[in-house]
Structure formats: C-alpha cells, structure tokens
Amino acid sequence: MPLENDETTTMTSPNQNAVFLASGLLAGLLAVGCGTSEGKPAAAPGDEPATEVAARPQEAPVATLGEDREPEVLDTGFDLKKISGAGQQQEHGPDDGHDHGAHGDVDDGGLDVVDPSTFGSLTYAEGTTQKHDFGEVPQGEKRTKIFTLAATGENPLVLKRIKPSCGCTVAEVRKVTPSGERMLYNTGEPIAPGEQFEVEAAIKTDGRQGKFSSTITLYTNTAEGFLNLHLSASILPILSIEGESVVNFGQISAADQVEKSVKIKSELLDPFKLEADPAFLVAPLAAEVVPIDPDGEGRSKTWEVKVTLGPSIPEGVRSYPLRLVTDSPKPGQEEADPEVPVEMYDVRVFVQAQVTGLVSASPNFISFGMVRPGQTIDRTSRIICHDDFKLATDMPFRLEGLRGDEFPYADAMSVTLEPVPGEPGSLDLRLRLEGLPEDLNGSFGGLVKLDVGHPLKEELLVRFSGVCRPGIPQRPVDGGQD
C-alpha cells in the first residue's frame, strides 16, 4: 500500500543499516583526522589553500569512538579496531607484535643526507674582504690578489672544488701551517679549525678593455655550501683606434680602388714605432703606416694608417683583418726562452666591403610574387658595367631551372635588354611573364644566364621566382596587364 505523502521512503534491511552505520563511522573518523568540521566533507588535496583549512575553527565534533567504549566488529566485516585518526601518532608496546625493523631502510630518494653537526665554517682573516678591485690596469698586464681565510668552529673545513668564472681568472689554494709555511692544498683535504689558508687569484687582461669582473667560487662543507670571492678592474687599452675599429667601404665594384685612414695612438706607451704585419697584407689589401709628429728616431705616440682596397677584388662580402705591431714588448718576458720571439703590443683593424662584379645586376633576384595562371607581369633588373666595356642589347642569354635543368615554363616568359637613357654603361633586363599554364598550382623559379662577354666577367646570373595560385583576385602588377 503506497504512503500518502510527497517524499519517497526507502525500506532497508537490518544488514543494510549495519553497512550504513559502519560507513558513517568511518567517514566521521576520517573527517576528524583531516581537520574538517561537522557536516562538511574533507576537501580533496588542492581544493582549498592550507592556510584556510588551518584557520577554520572546529565546530561541534562528529561522533567518534570514546575511550570508554570498546570498538566492535559489526556483521558487515569491518573491523573498527583497525581504524585510527589521520595524523595521530600510535605508540607500540613491546608485546603488540609491531616490528619497526621489518619495514627496512627508509628511501631518501637518492639525496645525500648531511648531518648538520658535521658542517665546517670559515671566516676572513684580518685585512681580507670578499671583494677586491684592482683599479686601473694596463691591457696585457697581470694582477694578483691573495685572500686569506681561516677554518673556524668545531669541525674541519673541506674545500670540495675551486671554480673561476672565466678562463681569464686563475686560482690557487695553499694551506698555511702554524709555522707560517705555505703548502699547496688538494681539494677534499680537511682544514682543521684554527688553520688558515690562502686563495691566490690572478687575472689576465690580454685582449680586454674597459670594466672587468670575475668570480672565484669555493664549494665547501659549510651550511651555505659555497663562498664567492669577487674581482674587478678597469682595463686601459695600450693602443686605441680613433673612431671605429672596422674600416667599412660599403658597396664597391671589383674594379674599384678605395682608400680610408684610421689613427692609432697610445696614452700609456712611450713613443713607439708601428708597422703592418706583412702576413696580413694580402692582395688586394695594402696599408701605409705614417707617424704623426715623430721624434728624431721616427717614433711617435700617434700614427696614421692609410688602408687601400682594390682593384681586382673578388666578388661578395669581403672582410680582411689588418694587424699593426709596435716595437714595445709586453711585460713579463724578461726570463722567457731566448729562442721564443718576444711578444710586442699590437692592435687589429678590420677592413670590410660588399663587392660587386665588373658587371652586376640590381637587383640580382627578381620576385614575381603571387600570380594567377594566364596573368601577364613585367619585372626589371638593371645591368651595370663598372668600366668602359660596352654592353650589347643583343647579348646571348638562356633560361634555366634553379638546379641547372631546363626551365619548364620558358614558353611563358620573354627576355629583352633595353638601353638606359643617359647611362651608356647600363641596360635594363626586362622579364615578362606572359601567362602560366591553367593547371599550375605552386611555386616556380629559375635563372637568366647572360653571356656578357666582358674579359673579366663572362657570365652574369639573375635569379627569379614566384608562386602561381588559381583563383586569386585579379589585379595589375607594376604596369602588367591581365
């Protein structure tokens, strides 16, 4: 007979009631262990910030098993004696059958566990600080600083590794015995508390100028694990170049001969002689070195270097180093092997140019862009001769693919050469695309090979490319017609 109310009533058996009771008790115990309040489920990890959970005051606790009530085993099979609150520490008696040794060693994840009681410690000796500035240092000279430190505390200090930050800095560590004797230190050796040690740091300034800084890191068995020693200096150039160290001639032709000058001077050296290293004077590069206000022996503190490039310069982007050498030796070579040449102060200048051939094309690459099948487009490149040779409008030419094979659409392209008014040494190369096949959908490209006939430039290449797409909007391009 149905119940006459708006709610649905579910009948349960005694066994089902027992299951529900055990589940409720288990949920209540877990809720207490997780710090939740009555009537609110425990949040899943990451649902709420830990600070919010910790700050929430507990309300009336859920029903738990009291100390005076013995947990019982219900007929559901759940043994409530095996349930304990999360986070509660359990104490074990000698006869409860629990053996910690049976669990084996705890896995530490492969990390080195360091006992803090074994840490060493150190301090700076009187007069030593963590940073040292050498001030102004002439380029090429070496400077040395000794940092004196001491092991302190109750445990030996160990230096595991000594690492300078760059190759221009070197470091050597020595132990100082109570008698004052210096002994080379080997990494890993213990330094007893009270013993001093020295870190001799040296910087090399060859090829450097301006602000300089480097760091020496000592990896130790201290609580911090390392110590940094800092070095700095302001390196003064022995030789300086007025203006840029690169002599850039820009775009020139292979037939040109161009000249520029730079000045080399020194504020630190006595008057000196300067010459170009012959090993660097490779044609078409030449240099003349002239002293400014020389003394009676031809020495000066300022020199002018006249750099000449060309003619007959190979095509392309060219860069030539030029080494200029003084007669002033670098310091520190007094005891050097007499068989080894003495190093002199020097400086390098770089000469650059973008060299075109005696006959060149501008541009030397033509882009047709995006075109439709059947569309007519014109493109032009100017052919220029850089000497008195006369270019012929009927010079032979041929169309090729980019790999040297036959250009497959040669029938759709015409090539003409036209004189340029007022420029007798120039011609306009006109490429006319007169309609690519209707079924072409993709890129195309090739090159025009012009038989120029110049004695020093027999052939000139002009490349071209484009993309053909059916159905693109119809529009005129550079005077072309559809």
Give a written overview of the molecule:
The protein is mainly beta. The chain folds into four domains: 14-82, no CATH class; 118-236, ntegrin, alpha v. Chain A, domain 3 (Immunoglobulin-like); 240-330 and 342-356, Sandwich (Immunoglobulin-like); 359-468, Immunoglobulins (Immunoglobulin-like). 5% of the residues lie in helices and 43% in strands. The protein is built from two helices and 26 strands. The protein has helices at residues 14-33, 50-55, and strands at residues 121-124, 131-138, 142-152, 157-164, 169-176, 182-184, 190-191, 196-204, 210-220, 226-236, 240-241, 246-253, 258-265, 274-276, 285-291, 302-309, 316-329, 344-356, 359-362, 365-371, 376-385, 397-401, 413-420, 423-434, 442-454, 457-468. The strands form six sheets. A five-stranded antiparallel β-sheet has the order 1-3-8-5-6, with no helix packed on it. A five-stranded mixed β-sheet has the order 2-10-9-4-7, with no helix packed on it. The chain has a four-stranded antiparallel β-sheet with strand order 11-13-16-15, with no helix packed on it. The chain starts with 13 loop residues before the first helix and ends in a 14-residue tail after the last strand. 19% of the residues are buried.
